[in-house]
Amino acid sequence: MEEDHGNSNSNSNGSITVDTTKWDRSVWLMKCPLVVSKSWQSQSAASSSSSDSPQVAKVIVSVDPLRSDDSSALQFTMEMGGNDSGHMPKSYSLNMFQDFVPMCVLSETGQGRVTMEGKVEHKFDMTPHTRNMEEYRKMCRERTNKSMIKNRQIQVIDNDRGVNMRPMPGMIGMIASSSKDKKKAAPVKGPEVKRTRRDRGELEDIMFKLFERQPNWTLKQLVQETDQPAQFLKEILNELCVYNKRGTNQGTYELKPEYKKSVEDTAVLDVGASIHATMKDLLCLRTRK
Q1: pTM for this one?
Q2: Which of 208, 199, 212 shows the shortest CA–CA distance to 239?
Q3: Which residues contact 105 (CB under 8 A, 6 or more apart)?
Q4: pLDDT digits (tens, 9 = 90+) for 127-172
Q5: Which of 24, 70, 141, 262 is at 20 to 30 A from 232, Cα to Cα?
Q6: Count of Cβ atoms closer than 10 Å to residue 2 Cβ
Q7: Which residues of the chain are modeled with pLDDT < 50?
Q8: Cα–Cα distance between 8 and 10 in angstroms, integer?
Q9: Apex CA 17: angle with CA 13 and CA 21, to 5°?
Q10: Given this model, what pLDDT does residue 36 score?
Q11: Which residue intervals of 10-130 are DSSP H helices?
């Protein structure tokens, strides 16, 4: 293709040139199966060395004489050329689109020259002809069977002693650690000690005595002190105590206000009883003297 400078367009710095001498040439745009495209490419590559360009296909147009003015009455059929092996269909139906977006075809050479090859006049969808459907089915079955063949092979290495499996110097840092190495060993839990439940009233008395010793306890501390199951202990704590969710005593239990008062009163009575017993003992000592 020779460039016609009179019909070429370029930008301000002249780096891109578009040859528009063939802009009004009619071009057909066709969507073809992959097997047809590969066949045409192989024939084009085989004929690149020779001066004669082979006939890759021919288009047959059928016209209905009764509907000669109707463009939809035209029927297009393509017959493949060449001697391709396999079960590739030789005849294809070309379904023409009536409405499509106006388009132009551009080509670019290795030197960066861009040429407008023409404008799209007809657009077709290429499908195997009905009389070649059996060949098309055979071709599809062959293609499916080839895709199911495994190309990987297992080779057993004898007397290797692990030489080929050893990492080369400097590759140790590049080898990604496996997921097994990343997983930390789970801590081994010791056998759980089965605790026997005490009587509910007895356990409540023990709890009151513990809260006399200190006002705040964690659940773990109470389990150790009482030697009771944690779930059973929670039931008692929910009735007698308040759980601190925030503040300085966060995560601890303390007695409810009404139980705090009763515990304080009991402590006062115990102190009074002890003082009374002490005075009684002193009076007994004086009487003996």
Answers
A1: 0.39
A2: 208
A3: 27, 29, 116, 117, 118, 119, 120
A4: 888 887 888 888 888 888 888 887 777 777 776 666 666 666 666 5
A5: 262
A6: 5
A7: 1-6, 10, 271
A8: 7
A9: 145
A10: 84
A11: 34-46
SS3 breakdown of the chain: % helix, strand, coil, rounded to 5? 40, 20, 40
What pLDDT score was predicted for residue 140?
82
| Sequence letter at residue 56 | V
> What's the token pair of residue 137?
């089915």
Given a contact cutoff of 8 angstroms between Cβ atoms, the answer to whether 3 and 113 are in contact is yes
Please report the pLDDT score of residue 4 as a whole number: 42
Written as six digits, the tokens of 9 are 């367009």
> Three-state SS for 94?
strand
Three-state DSSP class for 21? coil
Residue 125 token pair: 């969808």
pLDDT at 199: 87
Tokens of 285: 């000592």
Q: Is 30 helix (H, G, I), strand (E, B) or coil?
A: strand
Q: Give the pLDDT confidence score for residue 288 in this predicted structure.
A: 53
- Grouping H, G, I as helix, E, B as strand and the rest as coil, residue 105 is strand
Considering only CA atoms, give the Rg of the chain.
48
